[in-house]
UniProtKB/TrEMBL annotation:
<protein>
    <submittedName>
        <fullName>Uncharacterized protein</fullName>
    </submittedName>
</protein>
<feature type="domain" description="LRRCT">
    <location>
        <begin position="356"/>
        <end position="407"/>
    </location>
</feature>
<dbReference type="Pfam" id="PF13855">
    <property type="entry name" value="LRR_8"/>
</dbReference>
<dbReference type="InterPro" id="IPR032675">
    <property type="entry name" value="LRR_dom_sf"/>
</dbReference>
<dbReference type="InterPro" id="IPR001611">
    <property type="entry name" value="Leu-rich_rpt"/>
</dbReference>
<dbReference type="InterPro" id="IPR000483">
    <property type="entry name" value="Cys-rich_flank_reg_C"/>
</dbReference>
<dbReference type="InterPro" id="IPR003591">
    <property type="entry name" value="Leu-rich_rpt_typical-subtyp"/>
</dbReference>
<dbReference type="InterPro" id="IPR000372">
    <property type="entry name" value="LRRNT"/>
</dbReference>
<feature type="domain" description="LRRNT">
    <location>
        <begin position="26"/>
        <end position="62"/>
    </location>
</feature>
<keyword id="KW-1133">Transmembrane helix</keyword>
<keyword id="KW-0677">Repeat</keyword>
<feature type="transmembrane region" description="Helical">
    <location>
        <begin position="418"/>
        <end position="442"/>
    </location>
</feature>
<keyword id="KW-0812">Transmembrane</keyword>
<keyword id="KW-0732">Signal</keyword>
<feature type="signal peptide">
    <location>
        <begin position="1"/>
        <end position="26"/>
    </location>
</feature>
<keyword id="KW-0472">Membrane</keyword>
<keyword id="KW-0433">Leucine-rich repeat</keyword>
């Protein structure tokens, strides 16, 4: 529908150019009217109109009345316009709406814009006869509540939005029986709760936007929902019950909440999740069990979790091949296991990890070398700097000469395994030689051992006692 709107604007500009002559007899004097591919269009936009003009031709299919100063919608403004499909009333000064303005049963309006007006109160049945309506936009008004019956008869509605109002609650039955509904916009209100069961009510729901509200818990994601926008609420914990039925969920936006805890198995039901934005929350760590079910994840955003300082080693294994956008910049990392990054194999992988207090000592050498050997993987390379140790404070990780700083070169895995093998062989040989004598002295050895343990235990207890 957004596309449709844009296309219409473009086509419209072109039509104005082609048809700048008035067809006066069938057109209000304040408007310009013209035909276009079977439609009859009245353009009355941006004329400083304070009321709706009269005299529209009965075959009018579209009326542009946006960008005026209209403040009331009177009873018969659109009566008898049986062909009218598109009515644009946005960006006016509308505050008064006659209850029956759209009640004419012969009206078959499909597209109605009322956004950016001054509507504080909507008559409960004002849309009751509009079963043909597909799009209704009431964004940016002054609505404090929605009458429970307001949208009940909009059986054809696909996209409905009340963003940017002052709604504090939505009655559970508000969206009853809207079988075609795909998109609900409720962002930037004051909502503290949402209907819990609208997945059952609107069986085709695809996208819900309730960002910028006051929700403290995430309502259950409907089983058909593909996108959920929940940015900018007050959600503090995520639990699996919210995602139990979320099998179609593909994009989940949860940035700018207060999430500090994510329960194990939270995302068990979200089997299709591709994008998860958790940036700007209060997470402290990512456990192995936090995201392990997300086998299709392509993007994970963890930036601006200011306390976040640890990601456990296997946390990203579940999506090591699919993920290609990963951010944990502007957190509190001093160290991370290099294998976590090295095991992500998608060729398009881009990582953000700057603005962290990295401690570029020899424990981080593998990460430093990874950054230096694959700089193209790191989007914010210039922000990846060291806070410690002192001799590299403030330096970019790309410029740290860790090879000479950490000489002798730290033992790599392969070397350490070889070393272990040699050590074990020698130990085995020694044990073999000594074992006979050892067996003879076993009893003595046991006693000595026990005594030694006792001594250790006592001295440790002494230490603890002295600390206390
Ligand atoms: C609509 O009606 C006007 C006259 O009232 C006429 O000029 C015009 O051709 C009609 N347009 C269409 C598309 O029927
Ligand atoms: C509408 O009013 C504004 C401010 O008074 C004026 O600048 C503008 O030209 C008017 N537009 C029309 C189409 O009359
Ligand atoms: C609508 O049409 C009917 C019959 O053509 C007419 O009686 C009525 O006055 C019209 N209403 C308006 C508001 O124009
Ligand atoms: C908007 O409507 C109110 C009355 O509802 C009126 O007082 C105000 O002057 C109008 N504003 C403009 C810019 O027309
Ligand atoms: C809602 O639609 C039903 C069925 O089409 C109809 O009977 C009822 O009158 C409508 N409600 C209102 C308030 O118009
Ligand atoms: C918005 O709603 C709150 C109650 O939730 C109310 O106190 C406040 O006055 C409303 N604001 C406006 C501008 O109507
Ligand atoms: C999941 O869907 C089933 C069947 O539609 C329903 O009974 C159950 O309550 C839903 N669970 C949650 C947590 O929404
Ligand atoms: C998650 O599960 C693991 C393994 O079962 C367990 O060790 C850990 O304590 C659990 N974490 C939470 C927050 O329940
Ligand atoms: C970041 O970690 C340091 C310890 O390394 C701690 O003192 C500090 O409080 C942490 N900052 C936040 C915002 O959690
Ligand atoms: C990615 O994970 C799969 C199993 O989840 C594992 O078999 C594979 O070895 C991993 N790849 C890397 C590079 O770690």
């Amino acid at each position: 529908m957004m596309y449709l709107n844009k296309i219409k604007t473009v086509v419209f500009a072109w039509m104005v150019f082609l048809h700048s002559t008035n067809v006066a007899s069938s057109c209000p004097s304040e408007c310009r009217c013209f035909g276009f591919s079977g439609d009859w269009i009245a353009d009355c936009s941006t004329q400083n109109l304070t009321q709706i003009p009269s005299g529209f031709a009965e075959n009018t299919t579209e009326i542009f009345l946006q960008n005026n100063l209209i403040s009331t919608l009177p009873e018969n403004a659109f009566s008898n316009l049986t062909k009218l499909k598109f009515l644009y009333l946005h960006n006016n000064n509308i505050s008064e709406i006659a209850p029956a303005v759209f009640a004419d049963p012969s009206l078959t309006l499909k597209y109605l814009t009322l956004h950016d007006n001054q509507i504080r109160i909507l008559p409960g049945d004002v849309f009751a006869g509009m079963s043909d309506l597909i799009v209704l936009n009431l964004n940016n008004n002054l609505l404090n509540s929605l009458p429970p019956s307001l949208v009940r008869n909009l059986t054809g509605i696909v996209q409905i939005s009340f963003s940017g109002n002052n709604l504090s609650s939505i009655d559970d039955v508000t969206f009853d029986d809207l079988s075609k509904l795909k998109y609900i916009g409720l962002s930037n209100n004051k909502l503290r709760s949402l209907p819990q069961n609208w997945g059952n009510i609107a069986p085709d729901l695809y996208s819900i936007d309730y960002s910028g509200n006051n929700l403290e818990t995430l309502p259950p994601v409907p089983s058909t929902a593909n996108q959920i926008y929940a940015t900018g609420n007050s959600i503090s914990t995520l639990s699996s019950s919210s995602f139990a039925n979320a099998t179609e969920l593909y994009e989940m936006f949860l940035s700018l909440n207060r999430i500090s805890a994510i329960e194990n198995d939270t995302f068990l039901g979200a089997t299709s999740l591709g994008w998860l934005d958790l940036s700007g929350n209060a997470m402290e760590r990512v456990d192995d069990f936090t995201f392990d079910h997300l086998s299709k994840l392509q993007g994970l955003y963890l930036a601006y979790n200011e306390p976040l300082s640890s990601i456990s080693s296997h946390a990203f294994e579940g999506f090591n091949e699919t993920i290609y956008r990963l951010s944990f910049d502007s957190c509190n990392f001093t160290w991370i296991d290099a294998d976590i990054i090295a095991s992500l194999t998608n060729k398009q992988l881009v990582i953000w990890m700057g603005n962290n207090p990295w401690n570029c000592d020899c424990n981080l050498q593998d990460v430093v070398e990874l950054v230096q050997s694959s700089p193209s993987k790191f989007y914010d390379l210039n922000q990846i700097t060291c806070q410690n140790p002192d001799d590299v404070k403030g330096k970019k990780m790309t410029t740290v000469d860790s090879k000479s700083r950490c000489s002798p070169a730290p033992i790599t895995k392969a070397y350490s395994e070889l070393g272990l093998a040699i050590g074990l062989s020698i130990a085995a040989a020694v044990v073999f030689v000594v074992i006979v004598g050892f067996l003879i002295n076993a009893r003595t050895a046991k006693i000595i051992n026990r005594n030694r343990q006792q001594t250790e235990r006592t001295s440790r207890q002494d230490e603890v006692a002295s600390v206390l």
